[in-house]
Structure formats: structure tokens, C-alpha cells
Amino acid sequence: MTHGNHDVLIIGGGVAGLVLALEVAERRRVTLLRPASDDQGASRWAQGGIAAVLSPSDDFDAHVADTLVAGDGLCDEAAVRFTVEQGPAAIARLLALGVPFTPDPSPEATYPYHLTREGGHGARRIIHAADATGLAVMETLKAHVTAHPAIQVLDDLTAIGLIGDTAGACRGARCLDGQGRLHELLAADTVLATGGASGLYRHTTSPHPASGEGMLMAAELGAELMNLEFQQFHPTCLYDPDGSPFLISEAVRGEGGRLLNVNGERFMPALDPRAELAPRDIVARAIDAEMQRTGSDHVLLDIRHLGEAAISHHFPTIHAHCASRGLDIAREPIPVVPAAHYSCGGLATDLAGATTVPNLHAIGEVACTGLHGANRMASNSLLECLVFARSCGAALLRDAPPGASAQAAPLVPLPDSGDRLADPQVLSSIRERMRQMMSARVAIVRHDAGLDEAAETLEALQRELAPLVAACAPTVTLASLWQALRLARLTVASARARRESRGLHYNPGCPGHAPGTAQPSRVHLADLD
Question: Which residues belong to any copy of the FAD-dependent oxidoreductase 2 FAD-binding domain (predicted)?
Fold first, then answer.
């Protein structure tokens, strides 16, 4: 079933997608694909806040410098400066929309809202809504999007692929509805805001993580992927093997939280002068090493010294959630473990979110703008969502096409498929084996032999799945797994090709930086052939 006449099609309804919809809808019609599961995506769970230069005692150069240090030599400095300098305007826009950021009532406050500090930042520059910033921003944006007459929200369709034409441009998306029926949404411009690829791993900080589906959809049209090897593991996810994932915000360490091993010994000050406020790659590796040294499956994050009043004030969500799971964080330390959190790599884009495929943009975690380099600094992610959604929106308004063209190139036809359904247990088994291999061999520390094993195993899994893709009817589960497997293979290929240790990619077989100027990795789907 073909649904034409869409102007701007946005796939994904997290912070990036919602902000873009509001920006573009002032002068263009917007169709927003936003399945209900988007309410449980990464944006919803962003606790800490948004980094921006807001205090009179802070400045752009300092924020740029901190970001470059965290990115370990691989940031695009122009992208960093662009993002940082657009930060205050992006925050002003959220304030105008009514996001309830936490005020700072203290007489000595130099800014009306409370600013906290997180790892890698040399100043307090994180504006937040208590410890549930992502939720507060999402709820505010959703209310405005729902009320906007030029935005059509489709919550009953899930994109499983993009539509390309024979000239190499993107012309929309192929989707499935709840009954498994195929729909083709043709659009003048398509924007991916589908999130990252943490779902390639077994343990993540989100209950419903993306597995890089949007990245692979674009790659199928020939889009370039960049820096896939840099998968960030958040140092402090609540350790609870029997419960759902729950992030313990970086801001907990920013307000004085101390990391202890299972013997109650603090270990970060001996490893880095910034101690618990070192960049995430350093802290995650330190925790991993301490767990191996002590033979434990977690470490402890201690904030008891802050006192119950301060804990309840600064971290009400974390305090309540831990209490619901039988843990009083005012009286006992929090068991934590690193978990897959954020993809620093993704679709290569310019400062307006344009990919290497005409009429296809990407914003948010699905994109690789050059801001994060080899390691994302805390709270720069929501900043990136806001800034690039706004710059992408400006470009889509400035460069709006005249409408559907009679001279448009023919669409690339959909490949034939069968009508039987793939066995869900078979698909679940393949996905679990993929996640186990990625977690065992392509995680915080990588070794050459492990990467070789991962490459062989993932290739075998793709060969196992390929006949089902050809013979079975398309489903969301099947399409997602097919996309995830190939992205996992490209991630391993990128990791094998980087013969150095830099940021989030740490390989003891090639420690330290390679000589010369650091270069991003670039791959295409065709590299798997």
C-alpha cells in the first residue's frame, strides 16, 4: 500500500525527532513515525541533563576544550565549536517551550537554574530537571507536537527500510503496521532519528535500546558510516541481574559520589587525577579492571556521605527507584556495573544533518557529526540532539524542494519475499548469540583474537539468517535482526582496522595512539561483500 504526498518524513520520536518536527512544521508539513516504544528509548532515560555554556563564569572555549580532551584526538573541532556555540540558544528554546528545569534559589547563584557538573567537564554547566531530564524534555516536546496542526503523528507504523530511487536518492520509507501489512510512505525529505546501537550488546542502560536499525537502513542506500568502533559503556548502571536496566546518572559522581571496590576501597584517585570525574572511557575501563582484579561482578558507588536530604533533593528519581528495588542509597552503597550506553559512531553527516545520500538526513545518536570523537563527554548527547535538530530544520526550510517531481527517477523495487513467518525462537536465538559475542569480544577491552572470533561468528550468523530473509514475509523482528547483524559485522570490521587504542576502543595488542593525525574510520555496507 503506497501513501504519497508526504513532505518531511521523520522516523523516530525521541528528543531529536520531536525538536525537528516543531522546527520544520512552521513552514512544511511533517509526518512523524513514532511507535509507542519510542517512549522507552534512550531520550526517556537521560537523567543527568544537557551541557551548555550558561553560567557567566563559563565560556565556549572551555566547553570546546573539555570536549576535545574527552574525544581523545578524534573530534571534528569545527563540529564541536558549532555545537557548543549553539547550545545557549537551544536551551532558551526549551525554556520557552516550558521544560521544567530545576531552579537555583541560592542567593549566590549566577544563573536562574541549577547547574551540576559531570565527568570530563571543568565547570558546572549541566542544566537539568532533577534527575529525570530526558523525561521532562520528552513530555514537554510531545505536548507541543501533539497540538501542532502541521504535524501528523503515526504511531501504528514501524519503518523496516528506506525507499531509494535509481538516481541514488532517498524517497521515503517502507513500513509495517500492527497487522504486518506493508506500507510505502513516499516523501520529499526523510530524516532518521532512530537512535544508536547499544542493543547489539547484552547489557545496556535502556530497557528498549535500538540496535542500529536506522544506520543500516541508510547504509542499504549507500550512506557512509563512521567511527562504529567507538561504543560507549556507561560506567554506572545499577547491578541487578534479575531486574530491568537502570542508569545511575553521571551527576551522582558530579555531586561527590565515590567508587569503591567490593572490599570498600576507593580506586579512582590512584588512576587519574580527576578521579571519579574522569571521562567515561577511563572510568569504565578502571571499573572493568577492578572487577577482574577482585573477581567480582560489580563495584560500589557510595553517596551516603551526602546525607539523605541532599540525596532526596538532587536524585529523587534514582532514590525512589532504588528504594522500589529494596536498596536505600542513603544508607548503603549502590552496586553498579558498566553497560552499553551510547554509540559515538553512526551515519556520517554535515552540520545540517545531511548524509551522503540525497534527501536523507540523520540527527541524534544515529548520526556521527564529529562532536564526540572517540568518546562522548557526559551530557553532550542531548545538546547534540537539540543543536542538530535545529540546524537540520533550518536546512530543510531553506532548501525545501518544489514538490513531487514528474522527472523523479524510478523507485528501486522491493525484493521478492515469501509469505511464511520466520520462527520467533530461531530469531531470538540468533539475536542472543550476536549479543553474547559482541559483549564478550567487542566491549570495553578488545583483543585481536577476540575480534577475529567475533568476525567469524557474526558472519556465520548472517549466513544462518539470510535464507529466512529471502524466504519469509517481512516482519519488524526479522528486519531489525537482519540490520543489527550486518551493523555488528561492520562494527567489528572497524575495530579490527583501528590499529591503536584511542578513547572507547582499547586493544592491549596495540596500546597507545598510532603515529600521525587521528583519522575517523569510514565504512559502507558494500565492504561486507
Answer: 7-382
What distances in angstroms separate CA 246 from CA 70, 127, 208, 404, one per listed residue?
A: 24, 21, 11, 45
Q: Which of 280, 376, 489, 502 is catalytic?
A: 280
* C-alpha span between 9 and 189 (Å, rounded): 6
Contact 384, 353 (CB under 8 A): no
List, in order, residues 6 or more apart from 505 with CB less than 8 Å away: 229, 230, 374, 446, 495, 498
8 Å CB contact between 438 and 200: yes
Domains of the chain: 2-175+186-230+344-398 (3.50.50.60), 235-341 (3.90.700.10), 424-507 (1.20.58.100)
Residues contacting residue 58 through CB under 8 Å, at least 6 positions apart: 123, 124, 125
pTM for this structure?
0.92
3-class DSSP state of 213: helix
CA distances from 466 to 31, 307, 430, 480 (A): 32, 56, 12, 13
Beta strands 367-368 and 346-348 are parallel
- In angstroms, rounded to a whole number, what is the distance separating the alpha carbons of residues 376 and 71? 6
Contact 422, 475 (CB under 8 A): yes
pLDDT in tens, the chain (529 residues): 556 679 999 999 999 999 999 999 999 999 999 987 666 556 666 667 999 999 999 999 999 999 999 999 999 999 999 999 999 999 999 999 999 999 999 998 999 999 998 888 999 999 999 888 989 999 999 999 999 999 999 999 999 999 999 999 999 999 999 999 999 999 999 999 999 999 999 989 887 889 999 999 999 999 999 999 999 999 999 998 888 888 898 889 989 999 999 999 999 999 999 999 998 889 999 999 999 999 999 999 999 999 999 999 889 989 999 999 999 999 999 999 999 999 999 999 999 999 999 999 999 999 999 999 999 998 999 999 999 999 999 999 998 876 544 456 888 887 777 788 999 999 999 999 999 999 999 999 999 999 999 999 999 999 999 999 999 999 999 999 999 999 999 999 999 999 999 999 999 999 999 999 999 999 999 999 7
Look up 280 and say whether it is catalytic: yes
**Nearest to 527, CA basis, from 484, 482, 497:** 497
> Can you give 244-296 as a three-state secondary structure string?
CCCECCHHHHHCCCEEECCCCCECCCCCCCCHHHCCHHHHHHHHHHHHHHHCC
Which alpha helices (H) appear in 332-404, and where do they start and end? Answer: 380-398
Identify whether the C-beta of residue 210 lies closer than 8 Å to the C-beta of residue 42.
Answer: yes
Cell 539470510, located at residue: 466
